Protein backbone atom coordinates (compact mmCIF):
# COMPACT_ATOMS: atom_id res chain seq x y z
CA UNK A 1 0.00 0.00 0.00
CA UNK A 2 1.33 3.46 -0.80
CA UNK A 3 2.91 5.20 2.17
CA UNK A 4 0.28 7.10 4.07
CA UNK A 5 -2.79 5.68 2.32
CA UNK A 6 -3.62 3.35 5.19
CA UNK A 7 -3.44 6.25 7.64
CA UNK A 8 -5.71 8.29 5.37
CA UNK A 9 -8.32 5.51 5.09
CA UNK A 10 -8.30 4.85 8.82
CA UNK A 11 -8.51 8.57 9.65
CA UNK A 12 -11.39 9.27 7.27
CA UNK A 13 -13.45 6.27 8.40
CA UNK A 14 -12.74 6.35 12.15
CA UNK A 15 -13.38 10.11 12.35
CA UNK A 16 -16.64 9.87 10.41
CA UNK A 17 -19.37 9.89 13.08
CA UNK A 18 -21.94 7.78 11.16
CA UNK A 19 -19.34 5.08 10.35
CA UNK A 20 -17.81 5.12 13.85
CA UNK A 21 -21.28 4.86 15.41
CA UNK A 22 -21.62 1.42 13.79
CA UNK A 23 -18.09 -0.05 13.86
CA UNK A 24 -16.34 2.00 16.54
CA UNK A 25 -12.62 1.45 16.07
CA UNK A 26 -13.01 -1.92 14.30
CA UNK A 27 -11.28 -0.73 11.12
CA UNK A 28 -8.28 -2.87 10.09
CA UNK A 29 -5.57 -2.98 7.46
CA UNK A 30 -5.57 -6.22 5.43
CA UNK A 31 -7.28 -8.49 7.97
CA UNK A 32 -9.12 -8.52 11.27
CA UNK A 33 -8.29 -10.77 14.21
CA UNK A 34 -10.14 -14.07 14.48
CA UNK A 35 -12.08 -13.06 17.58
CA UNK A 36 -13.44 -9.74 16.28
CA UNK A 37 -17.15 -9.06 16.73
CA UNK A 38 -19.21 -7.97 13.72
CA UNK A 39 -19.59 -5.45 12.15
CA UNK A 40 -16.12 -4.37 11.07
CA UNK A 41 -14.20 -2.92 8.12
CA UNK A 42 -10.98 -4.12 6.44
CA UNK A 43 -9.05 -2.05 3.89
CA UNK A 44 -6.20 -2.98 1.58
CA UNK A 45 -4.16 -1.37 -1.17
CA UNK A 46 -4.25 -3.00 -4.56
CA UNK A 47 -1.82 -1.14 -6.77
CA UNK A 48 0.02 2.13 -7.24
CA UNK A 49 0.06 3.72 -10.68
CA UNK A 50 2.54 6.62 -10.83
CA UNK A 51 2.03 9.29 -13.47
CA UNK A 52 5.29 9.21 -15.41
CA UNK A 53 7.07 12.40 -16.44
CA UNK A 54 10.18 13.09 -18.50
CA UNK A 55 11.48 15.48 -15.88
CA UNK A 56 11.72 13.22 -12.83
CA UNK A 57 9.78 11.16 -10.36
CA UNK A 58 6.02 11.03 -10.38
CA UNK A 59 4.28 13.99 -8.76
CA UNK A 60 0.89 12.20 -8.82
CA UNK A 61 0.18 8.59 -7.85
CA UNK A 62 -3.12 6.83 -8.31
CA UNK A 63 -3.69 4.05 -5.77
CA UNK A 64 -6.60 1.62 -5.79
CA UNK A 65 -7.92 0.75 -2.33
CA UNK A 66 -10.49 -1.93 -1.51
CA UNK A 67 -12.78 -1.58 1.49
CA UNK A 68 -14.44 -4.75 2.81
CA UNK A 69 -17.39 -4.48 5.19
CA UNK A 70 -18.65 -7.45 7.23
CA UNK A 71 -21.83 -7.87 9.27
CA UNK A 72 -24.29 -10.55 10.32
CA UNK A 73 -27.14 -8.21 9.34
CA UNK A 74 -27.94 -7.48 5.68
CA UNK A 75 -29.58 -4.13 6.36
CA UNK A 76 -26.53 -3.09 8.40
CA UNK A 77 -24.25 -3.95 5.45
CA UNK A 78 -26.33 -1.74 3.15
CA UNK A 79 -26.44 1.12 5.65
CA UNK A 80 -22.75 0.92 6.54
CA UNK A 81 -21.80 0.64 2.87
CA UNK A 82 -23.63 3.87 2.12
CA UNK A 83 -21.98 5.60 5.08
CA UNK A 84 -18.50 4.45 4.03
CA UNK A 85 -19.10 5.69 0.50
CA UNK A 86 -20.28 9.06 1.81
CA UNK A 87 -17.17 9.27 4.02
CA UNK A 88 -14.72 8.59 1.17
CA UNK A 89 -16.18 9.46 -2.23
CA UNK A 90 -15.04 12.83 -3.65
CA UNK A 91 -12.85 13.72 -0.67
CA UNK A 92 -9.92 16.05 -1.31
CA UNK A 93 -7.48 18.00 0.85
CA UNK A 94 -4.74 17.06 3.28
CA UNK A 95 -5.29 14.11 5.62
CA UNK A 96 -2.51 12.77 7.87
CA UNK A 97 -0.02 14.97 5.91
CA UNK A 98 -1.01 13.24 2.65
CA UNK A 99 -2.25 15.60 -0.06
CA UNK A 100 -5.30 14.06 -1.72
CA UNK A 101 -6.29 15.46 -5.09
CA UNK A 102 -9.40 13.28 -5.10
CA UNK A 103 -10.92 9.99 -3.99
CA UNK A 104 -13.40 8.34 -6.37
CA UNK A 105 -15.69 5.35 -5.82
CA UNK A 106 -15.01 2.98 -8.73
CA UNK A 107 -16.77 -0.33 -8.03
CA UNK A 108 -18.82 -2.25 -5.50
CA UNK A 109 -20.25 -5.70 -4.87
CA UNK A 110 -21.78 -7.69 -2.02
CA UNK A 111 -22.54 -11.21 -1.02
CA UNK A 112 -22.84 -13.81 1.72
CA UNK A 113 -20.14 -16.12 3.13
CA UNK A 114 -21.74 -19.46 4.03
CA UNK A 115 -18.71 -20.65 5.98
CA UNK A 116 -18.80 -17.65 8.33
CA UNK A 117 -22.56 -17.01 8.04
CA UNK A 118 -21.89 -13.32 7.40
CA UNK A 119 -22.78 -10.72 4.79
CA UNK A 120 -20.08 -8.66 3.13
CA UNK A 121 -19.72 -5.70 0.80
CA UNK A 122 -16.63 -4.70 -1.15
CA UNK A 123 -16.04 -1.18 -2.42
CA UNK A 124 -13.13 -0.01 -4.56
CA UNK A 125 -11.78 3.53 -4.58
CA UNK A 126 -9.21 5.39 -6.64
CA UNK A 127 -7.01 7.70 -4.53
CA UNK A 128 -5.12 10.41 -6.46
CA UNK A 129 -2.23 11.48 -4.24
CA UNK A 130 -0.05 14.53 -4.96
CA UNK A 131 3.63 14.03 -4.15
State the helix count. Answer: 3
Global geometry? elongated
Span between N and C termini? 15 Å
Number of strands: 6
Tally of domains: 1
CATH architecture: 2-Layer Sandwich
| SSE topology string | HHEEEHEEE
Q: Indicate the structural class.
A: alpha+beta
Helicity level: 10-25%
What strand order characterises the main sheet? 1-2-3-6-5-4
Give the CATH level 1 class: Alpha Beta
Rg of Cα set: 15 Å
Uncertain segments are none
Report the biggest beta sheet as strand number plus sense, adding barrel if it closes: 6 strands, mixed
What share of residues are in beta strands? 35-45%
Please outline the helices and strands.
Blueprint: H1 5-14, H2 17-23, E1 27-29, E2 40-50, E3 60-71, H3 74-88, E4 93-95, E5 98-113, E6 118-130
Outline of this structure?
With 131 residues, this protein is of the alpha+beta class. The chain contains three helices and six strands.
Write a structural description.
The protein has a single domain (5-130), classed as 2-Layer Sandwich (STM4215-like). It contains 3 helices and 6 strands; from the N terminus they run ααβββαβββ. The protein has helices spanning 5-14, 17-23, 74-88; strands spanning 27-29, 40-50, 60-71, 93-95, 98-113, 118-130. It has a 6-stranded mixed sheet. A hairpin with a 4-residue loop joins strand 5 and strand 6 (118-130). The two termini are 15 Å apart. The model has no long low-confidence stretch (mean pLDDT 92).
Amino acid sequence: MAKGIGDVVYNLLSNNAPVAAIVGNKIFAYMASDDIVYPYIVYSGINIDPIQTKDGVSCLDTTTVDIEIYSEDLSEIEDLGNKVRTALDRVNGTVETVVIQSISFTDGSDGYLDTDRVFYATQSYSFRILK
